[in-house]
Design goal:
- With 416 residues, the chain is an alpha/beta fold.
- The chain folds into two domains: 21-262, Type I PLP-dependent aspartate aminotransferase-like (Major domain) (Aspartate Aminotransferase, domain 2); 265-335 and 375-412, Aspartate Aminotransferase, domain 1.
- It contains 14 helices and twelve strands.
- It has helices at residues 21-33, 50-62, 73-83, 100-108, 128-132, 152-160, 213-223, 230-233, 252-262, 265-280, 315-324, 342-346, 374-380, 394-411; strands at 66-70, 91-95, 112-116, 137-143, 165-169, 177-178, 181-182, 189-193, 206-210, 289-291, 306-309, 383-385.
- The strands form three sheets. It has a seven-stranded mixed sheet with strand order 1-9-8-5-4-2-3, with helices on both faces. It has a three-stranded antiparallel sheet with strand order 10-11-12, with helices on one face. Strands 6-7 form a two-stranded antiparallel ribbon.
- Helix 1 (21-33) packs antiparallel against helix 9 (252-262).
- It starts with 20 loop residues before the first helix and ends in a 5-residue tail after the last helix.
- Bound molecules: pyridoxal-5'-phosphate (PLP).
- Pyridoxal-5'-phosphate binds at residues 72-74, 98-99, 101-102, 143, 169, 171-172, 193, 195, 206.
- Residues 72-74, 98-99, 101-102, 143, 169, 171-172, 193, 195, 206 line the site of pyridoxal-5'-phosphate.
Length: 416
């Protein structure tokens, strides 16, 4: 048998690969007006428009009431938790399989992260909420991992009946829907990121959305040194007392790029979904592997289908053979389990008194060790990610499906 022709490795990337004339025009507009700060510029009567316009289009796109732009997705998490009043003595549930910031921002506000197992969807197992809630639990952070929504109906039910806030971390999944509604509308408060690797990017940047006026006002105050300026009071009249906030304000330059990118999200999503359909349509019912289950297949973003192999020993050879065929196939995309990260192994915050783990005599305590997460350990050793991107073509998608089928035959010993 002759080996199929090797196709050049496709160039990965989502929003940043779509940067073009639209981003340039909006950035130039900010520079030519000499107004890089969102709250005032040349004309004291007329605040600069870019961040305000981004917030307006963002809340309309998501279908929610309030949006607040901040400096990053991590800042958005910190601000969202502060808005909810979460601090020392509190516990926040978050999946063990999640991005660094999902853990560290909980520590930053002084609360204790409580790690939860994922299920085959690679998102939070909603049953974990019942297992992990204590009288100190204040919130659940639900991460929508890589363009696939978590099962928000059971999460909301389990969390709200226990009086917990639900915080959606949508950093990786802007534009993803669940049961016909955008993610970010299924919680009390939700966060997004415009970092380089995300669906839409300005290099850095973040967004918070909510329908709750009190949370909106407190988020604004946390993001702007405790103040609450007229542009916000025009949307929600001030009711909350000032408190010592941080400084997480978005610049007009960031907003210019993020606005142009936001307007491209649905085009990027349609592109990815079309390619994903070509790939996964041909990978159904294969022996020894399955695809990542998606709670709402009509709603996912489609930039990264996942193969879940039955046998973890086959993952290495499977990936190596795909890689040799120039198929991009990360086993993990920057994410790895929180309990394996250095800051969990040490349990340290920036100062000893700020660590939420200082009361534990032995560290790592139960709940922070690999052996406490058998399902997360098992699942994350068995998957292969097949990223798709803005520059991928239909021919790339077909080639990926061909390659997976060929490697599947080889690795599972099914002959040629
Ligand atoms: C990227 C990311 C963040 C943090 O966003 P930054 O803008 O990089 O600070 C938070 N949560 C998740 C799930 C992410 O993927």
């Amino acid at each position: 048998m002759t080996a199929p022709a090797l196709r050049p490795r496709p160039v990965p990337g989502l929003g940043f690969q779509a940067i073009g004339a639209e981003e340039e025009a909006l950035v130039l507009d900010v520079l030519r007006r000499k107004e890089p700060f969102r709250y005032y510029g040349g004309d004291p009567a007329k605040p600069p428009p870019m961040t305000a316009q981004l917030e307006k289009e963002f809340r309309e796109y998501i279908g929610t009431d309030y949006a607040l732009a901040v400096t990053s997705g991590s800042a958005a998490l910190e601000v969202a938790m502060a808005a909810c009043g979460i601090g020392p003595g509190d516990e926040v549930i978050v999946t063990a399989w999640s991005w660094i910031a999902c853990f560290t921002t909980i520590v930053r506000v002084g609360a204790r992260p409580v790690l939860a197992e994922i299920d085959e969807s690679l998102n939070l197992d909603p049953k974990e909420i019942a297992r992990l809630t204590t009288p100190k639990t204040r919130a659940v952070i639900v991460v929508h991992y890589q363009g696939v929504a978590a099962a928000m109906e059971p999460v909301e039910l389990e969390a709200h009946r226990r009086g917990l806030y639900v915080i959606e971390d949508c950093a990786q999944s802007l534009g993803t829907r669940y049961r016909g509604r955008q993610i970010g509308t299924w919680s009390d408060i939700a966060t997004f990121s415009f970092q380089y690797n995300k669906v839409a990017t300005a290099g850095e940047g973040g967004m918070i959305v909510t329908r709750d006026q009190r949370l909106y006002e407190r988020a604004v105050r946390m993001s702007d040194l405790g103040s609450y300026r007229p542009v916000h009071a025009a949307q929600v009249p001030a009711k909350e007392p000032a408190f010592a906030g941080g400084q997480f304000r978005m610049s007009e330059l960031t907003a210019a790029v993020a606005l142009a990118q936001l307007r491209k999200v649905d085009r990027i999503r349609a592109h990815c979904r079309a390619l994903q359909a070509r790939v996964v349509g041909r990978l159904q019912g294969l022996k020894g592997l399955k695809l990542r289950p998606v709670a709402d297949p009509a709603g996912d973003f489609g930039f990264e289908p996942y193969l879940l192999l039955d046998d973890p020993a086959l993952v290495g050879p499977f990936r190596d053979k795909l890689d040799a065929r120039n198929v991009n196939c990360g086993q993990r995309t920057g994410t790895y389990p929180q309990y394996n990260r250095d800051y969990v192994k040490t349990g340290l915050a920036h100062a000893p008194g700020a660590s939420p783990f200082r009361e534990f005599k032995d560290w790592p305590a139960p709940g922070y060790r690999p052996e406490d997460f058998p399902r997360t350990e098992d699942l994350t050793k068995r998957f292969i990610a097949l990223p798709l991107g803005w520059l991928y073509t239909e021919a790339d998608a077909d080639y990926i499906a061909d390659a997976v089928l060929a490697v599947h035959r080889e690795v599972l010993g099914l002959g040629c």
